[in-house]
């Protein structure tokens, strides 16, 4: 463009009614050309200075005059003549702008009234683009904004702006057409309301979908005509009713017509007032009654435009096009004699020229004349019914001179049918065949005491009978405690007697009666004898509706839980299916002793009986075991025990249920030795039997195959059954007491009796080595399989050889280090106790490394000043660890991890401490131990160990950092040997997270995409108080430790940590939500790249007044060393901030403090930073306050100590840079986000997810 050519100005032309839009465009245009200050008066006519030369002043004056008149010229080109003719006497652009502003900036109540009237009456027209409609409404909003008073207080201005945006959103949504109703309903249900920009993005997406779903055809629509609501005959002839066959009214107006929906007289189903609207259609909108018909032809340049053709000429044109179409189509001409039907939206009635298609036909004289497209008329000779392969048509006209078989779309709609047109055809559906089932709401009711509500259901029949012949089982679930009772049944008719037994047991054992009995609608629960007994007990029975098992959901879900456990038991033990009864009894016995998330991780057993369950009697289902035989079952030279398979727990006996493969029966005995690490089926053969057949056939299977599954062997006669167990009926499952396998105080698992004739011995099985499936090698599965029991007392551990060996090794280590001297307890002195702590050490993949027994002193009994003084010991800062990893990754330094065995035993004690002899220590039982070394559990043990370690490493030339005393550094002039590592280091806590999920009982729960729900606000009074907060505190404490490598959960853990003193149910639910997120991101961790720089940068942010209880703000910051995240924090500020600027400034002060510590720490590690460290902040006011050293009203209330930011800013230590909110990484530490934004922030933290090999 030539330099003398004027650039193109704004496209909006000022006409006197659009000043707001014109002024906005012109302002942006002038600012883009750096001329806006000429209009505002900031750049005025140059004034000559005293020493200025004439030529320079003339140049400045000429430059100003040129730009000033250039602006006036642009004003003239962008206004109508009646307006720019008023500019003649003005020579200054500012004066012209002020003139236009005075004339056309309307204000006052009358103008606001006019704008409000336009806004209220503004509605979106059909097919009007959403962008076009919003721009018109935005223009009115802008004009209204001109007359709005300016609010000086920033806080009030922010509140008013929020209310204004919400009001604009509501106005905009109210004015939209009904086709946007689904999106409108979704947006209005969100709390808080979304922004107008977000709503626009959703509406534009919906508009695109609507345009995409509209049918597109290569042919062009040539003609569209409107049809009356019933018949075209009303246009050119008398009205005719096809219901009563009378003239004078239409079918929809017939007084005798019957609605197919409500079956009332006087209206059709399309106008039925009781029929609900279709999905996506507002119930208050009128139903469309007119239909259109379209005729398509090939697109041609010679085709006339519809907009230029009168309506009267469309009829002949359509007739001509259809005639050409019929004459050129072989398919259409052949359709006359065939059974091909065409849908016609303008046809008044079904009609056909072929009488052979009619199943019934009668002559008619009442049918109206049919007008065709060329103006001629056809008469119907008969009416009748036609049945096609997919549709039955009644009241169809027979018109011999007709060319095609036509189906009237209008007639189908009047009869209440629904039609869907698509590219592949038309689908017709009767509304009576498409009624959906109503959705079910989650029940939030619960019982307040045991046996207030009992759920019950029957399962069966099983395809395989148990060893006792049972094919069914029935369960009873207590709603309050979730305790479950199970009974095996031979047939369903046994329910009545079993319930009598169950109700009597409840009455005897608990002195209670069942108040409500809820079950499904099975016939057994409607038996007369059963109902008579229920009613005599005063119990209310609640049955679900037919075909509605969801109303008995608690029992149905318990069935699934039991059957899943049964399948797991049978598959893991490789048991035949006929042992499913034993597996079901054992499953219920175990489930009753597992923590339940519905009971806040309390077991059903403890909820019902009030005492914790004992797990000492639990054994692995299907494991190998040895049962002691009775004296008459063996001779003096034969084995005294027999190899059996463990299948469960006794009922009336205090013992275990074991399957004897030799005698083919169940044995109950308390004299059982278990091989819990060996499954019974894994033993290919055994040699501890005395039956001769085992010597002749050593490959005899341990589990016989049922005769129904395989042919019997003629060489193997059936073994005799030793009648040790009587034939007893199936009894319910029971729970044993805390110290024994079975208990007479509660119901126990039933003994499923065996039959008198055992199955014949089967053919041998393959003795191939069975390997576990590949999916069990997964990290979490492998860890769960090997989660073994750890004893809690010495009495419990002393019977296990593995733990005995571990205790022996610990005592040997104590004696080797001369931990104590055995002495007599001096007079006036007291000895503290000690105990054993047992732990199974696992590797990173969850496999067992070793059994560890540690002797721990009961340090809580120590007294200050007597047997201890100072206790403080420094602990390594995790920030130092992460910083060291980041530096080592960049320099590729080799890293080594060292573990000091029995570390505390190396510390020397200076105090005189006496301790009782350890349990199991038999040397000198009358003596006590005078401790020489720092034993675990002593209050001063950490301090003594650190002092010992510090003195040793100093001898090797290490020196502690002055900024972190736990960091020891040794510098060498010979340099370091660098190892090659192309990726860097990875830091995670996957195993710890897996153990945490197991402790919380959430290993099988669903995962979520964010640690907390969007806009989650936790307050101290939400929900109900937890009866026992121990688990809550344990889980939160574990989550705090997990944040060492998981910055993505730092803010969520910070929130739940505020309620440790008095947690409520909502707080516990939030903790479970965090754990569900961890389950889906178990392998997330930090990655320290080897290809990164060592530049330090930070992000600082604050959530102003985010706490709904005390309105204190939240500080969040994070530090990156190159690409490696080394430090972060999410913390609530200690006082209330009066503005967002103050909150952001306090966050900057905390960030600065952490920055100073990190720079000093990195300097000790050899990483120096000569340039200022960049801190990114998204609050420009806070940045300006840091740069401005003048206090004013907005900053007087900020404490002076917060201004250390300004001090170090001026010293060149840090440099503040503004950052947009979308790029503010520290946002993740101050508030919650939706899944999309949250994933974006997690990616900015440079986290990685690497599963173990």
Automatic annotation (TrEMBL):
Pfam families: Pol_BBD (PF22936), Retrotran_gag_2 (PF14223), rve (PF00665), RVT_2 (PF07727), SH3_retrovirus (PF25597). This is Integrase catalytic domain-containing protein. Residues 432-612 form the Integrase catalytic domain. Residues 716-766 are annotated as: Disordered. GO terms for biological process: DNA integration. GO terms for molecular function: aspartic-type endopeptidase activity; nucleic acid binding; zinc ion binding. Residues 241-255 form the CCHC-type domain. Coiled coil: none annotated. Gene3D superfamilies: Ribonuclease H-like superfamily/Ribonuclease H, Zinc finger, CCHC-type. Residues 734-752 have a biased composition (Pro residues). The keyword Zinc-finger applies. Residues 718-733 have a biased composition (Low complexity). Keywords: Aspartyl protease, Hydrolase, Metal-binding, Protease, Zinc, Zinc-finger.
């Amino acid at each position: 463009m030539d330099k003398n050519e004027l650039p193109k100005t704004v496209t909006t032309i000022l006409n006197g009614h659009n000043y707001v839009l014109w002024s906005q465009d012109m302002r942006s245009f002038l600012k883009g050309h750096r001329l806006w200050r000429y209009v505002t008066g900031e750049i005025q006519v140059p004034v000559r200075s005293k020493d200025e030369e004439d030529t320079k002043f003339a140049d400045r004056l000429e430059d100003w005059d040129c730009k000033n008149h250039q602006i006036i010229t642009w004003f003239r080109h962008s206004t109508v003549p009646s307006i720019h003719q008023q500019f003649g006497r003005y020579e200054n652009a500012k004066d012209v702008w002020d003139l236009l502003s005075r004339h056309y900036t309307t204000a006052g109540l009358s103008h606001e009234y006019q704008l409000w009237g336009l806004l209220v009456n503004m509605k979106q027209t059909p097919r009007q683009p959403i962008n076009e409609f919003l721009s018109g409404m935005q223009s009115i909003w802008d004009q209204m904004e001109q007359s709005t008073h300016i609010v000086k207080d920033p806080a009030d201005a922010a509140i008013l702006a929020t209310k204004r945006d919400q009001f604009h959103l509501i106005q905009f949504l109210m004015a939209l057409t009904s086709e946007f109703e689904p999106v409108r309903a979704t947006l209005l249900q969100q709390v808080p309301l979304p922004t107008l920009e977000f709503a626009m993005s959703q509406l534009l997406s919906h508009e695109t979908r609507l345009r995409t779903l509209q049918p597109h055809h290569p042919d062009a629509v040539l003609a569209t005509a409107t049809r009356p609501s019933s018949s075209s005959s009303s246009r050119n002839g008398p009205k005719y009713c096809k219901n009563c066959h009378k003239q004078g009214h239409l079918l929809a107006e017939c007084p005798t017509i019957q609605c197919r929906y409500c079956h009332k007289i006087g209206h059709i189903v399309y106008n039925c007032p009781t029929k609900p609207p279709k999905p996506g259609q507002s119930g208050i909108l009128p139903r469309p009654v007119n239909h259109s018909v379209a005729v398509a032809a090939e697109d041609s340049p010679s085709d006339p435009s519809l907009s230029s053709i009168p309506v009267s000429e469309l009829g002949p044109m359509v007739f001509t096009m259809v005639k050409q179409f019929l004459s050129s189509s072989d398919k259409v001409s052949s359709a006359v004699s065939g059974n091909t039907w065409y849908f016609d939206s303008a046809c008044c009635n079904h009609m056909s020229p072929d009488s052979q298609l009619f199943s019934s036909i009668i002559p008619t004289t009442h049918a109206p004349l049919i007008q065709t497209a060329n103006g001629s008329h056809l008469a119907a000779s008969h009416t009748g019914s036609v049945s096609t392969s997919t549709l039955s048509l009644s009241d169809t006209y027979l018109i011999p001179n007709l060319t095609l078989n036509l189906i009237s779309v209008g007639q189908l709609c009047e009869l209440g049918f629904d039609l869907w047109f698509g590219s592949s055809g038309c689908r017709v559906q009767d509304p009576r065949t498409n009624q959906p089932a109503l959705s079910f709401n989650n029940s939030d009711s619960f019982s307040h005491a045991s046996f207030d509500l009992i759920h019950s259901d029957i399962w069966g029949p099983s395809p395989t009978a148990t060893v006792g012949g049972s094919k069914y089982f029935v369960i009873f679930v207590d709603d309050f405690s979730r305790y479950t009772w199970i009974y095996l049944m031979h047939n369903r008719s046994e329910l009545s007697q079993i319930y009598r037994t169950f109700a009597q047991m409840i009455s005897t054992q608990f002195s209670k009666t069942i108040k409500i009995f809820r079950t499904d609608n099975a016939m057994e629960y409607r038996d007369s004898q059963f109902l008579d007994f229920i009613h005599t007990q005063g119990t209310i029975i609640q049955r679900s509706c037919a075909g509605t098992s969801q109303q008995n959901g608690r029992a149905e879900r318990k069935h699934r839980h039991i059957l899943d456990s049964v399948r797991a038991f049978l598959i893991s033990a490789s048991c035949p299916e006929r042992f499913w009864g034993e597996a079901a009894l054992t499953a219920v016995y175990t489930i009753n002793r597992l923590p339940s998330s519905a009971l806040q991780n309390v077991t059903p057993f403890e909820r019902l009986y009030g005492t914790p369950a004992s797990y000492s009697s639990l054994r692995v289902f299907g494991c190998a075991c040895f049962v002691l035989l009775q004296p008459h079952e063996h001779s003096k030279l034969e084995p005294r025990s027999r190899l059996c398979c463990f299948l469960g727990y006794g009922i009336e006996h205090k013992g275990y249920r074991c399957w004897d493969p030799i005698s083919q029966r169940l044995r109950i005995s308390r004299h059982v030795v278990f091989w819990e690490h060996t499954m019974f089926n894994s033993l290919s053969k055994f040699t501890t039997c005395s039956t001769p057949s085992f010597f002749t056939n050593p490959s005899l299977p341990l589990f016989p195959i049922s005769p129904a599954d395989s042919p019997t062997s003629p060489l193997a006669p059936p073994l005799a059954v030793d009648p040790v167990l009587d034939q007893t009926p199936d009894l319910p499952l029971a729970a044993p007491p805390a110290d024994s396998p079975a208990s007479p105080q509660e119901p126990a698992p039933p003994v499923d009796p065996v039959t008198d004739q055992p199955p014949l011995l089967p053919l041998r099985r393959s003795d191939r080595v069975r390997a576990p499936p590949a999916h069990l090698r997964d990290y979490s599965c492998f860890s769960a399989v090997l989660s073994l029991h750890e004893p809690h007392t010495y009495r419990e551990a002393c019977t296990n050889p593995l733990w005995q060996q571990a205790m022996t090794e610990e005592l040997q280590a104590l004696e080797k280090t001369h931990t104590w001297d055995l002495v007599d307890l001096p007079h006036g002195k007291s000895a503290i106790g000690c105990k054993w702590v047992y732990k199974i050490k696992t590797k990173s993949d969850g496999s067992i490394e070793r059994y560890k027994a540690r002797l721990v002193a009961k340090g809580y009994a120590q007294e200050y000043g007597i047997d201890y003084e100072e206790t403080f010991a420094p602990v390594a800062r995790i920030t130092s660890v992460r910083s060291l990893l980041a530096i080592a990754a960049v320099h590729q330094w080799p890293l080594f991890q060292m573990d000091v065995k029995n570390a505390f035993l190396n510390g020397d004690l200076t105090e005189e401490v006496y301790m009782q002899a350890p349990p199991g220590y038999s040397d000198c039982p009358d003596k006590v131990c005078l401790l020489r070394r720092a034993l675990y559990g002593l209050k001063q043990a950490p301090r003594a160990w650190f002092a010992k370690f510090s003195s040793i490493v100093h001898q090797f030339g290490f020196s502690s950092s002055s900024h972190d005393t736990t960091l020891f550094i040794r510098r060498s002039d010979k340099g370091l040997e660098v190892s090659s590592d192309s990726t860097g280091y990875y830091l995670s806590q996957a195993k710890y997270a897996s153990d945490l999920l197991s402790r919380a009982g959430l290993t099988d729960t669903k995962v979520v995409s964010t640690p907390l729900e969007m806009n989650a606000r936790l307050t101290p009074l939400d929900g109900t108080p937890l009866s026992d907060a121990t688990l809550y505190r344990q889980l939160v404490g574990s989550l705090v430790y997990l944040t060492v490598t998981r910055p993505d959960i730092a803010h969520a853990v910070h929130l739940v940590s505020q309620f440790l003193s008095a947690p409520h149910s909502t707080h516990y639910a939030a903790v479970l939500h965090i754990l569900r997120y961890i389950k889906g991101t178990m392998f997330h961790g930090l990655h320290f790249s080897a290809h990164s720089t060592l530049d330090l940068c930070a992000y600082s942010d604050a959530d102003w007044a985010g706490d709904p209880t005390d309105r204190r703000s939240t500080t969040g910051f994070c530090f990156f060393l190159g690409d490696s995240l080394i430090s972060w924090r999410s913390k609530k500020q200690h006082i209330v901030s009066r503005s967002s600027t103050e909150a952001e400034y306090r966050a900057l002060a905390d960030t600065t403090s952490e920055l100073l510590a990190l720079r000093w720490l990195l300097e000790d590690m050899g990483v120096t930073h000569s340039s200022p460290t960049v801190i990114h902040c998204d609050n420009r006011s806070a940045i300006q306050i840091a740069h401005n050293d003048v206090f004013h009203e907005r900053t007087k209330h900020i404490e002076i100590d917060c201004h250390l930011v300004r001090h170090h800013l001026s010293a060149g230590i840090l440099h503040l840079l503004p950052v947009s909110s979308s790029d503010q990484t520290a946002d993740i530490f101050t508030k919650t986000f939706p899944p999309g934004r949250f994933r974006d922030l997690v990616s900015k933290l440079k986290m990685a997810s690497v599963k173990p090999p």
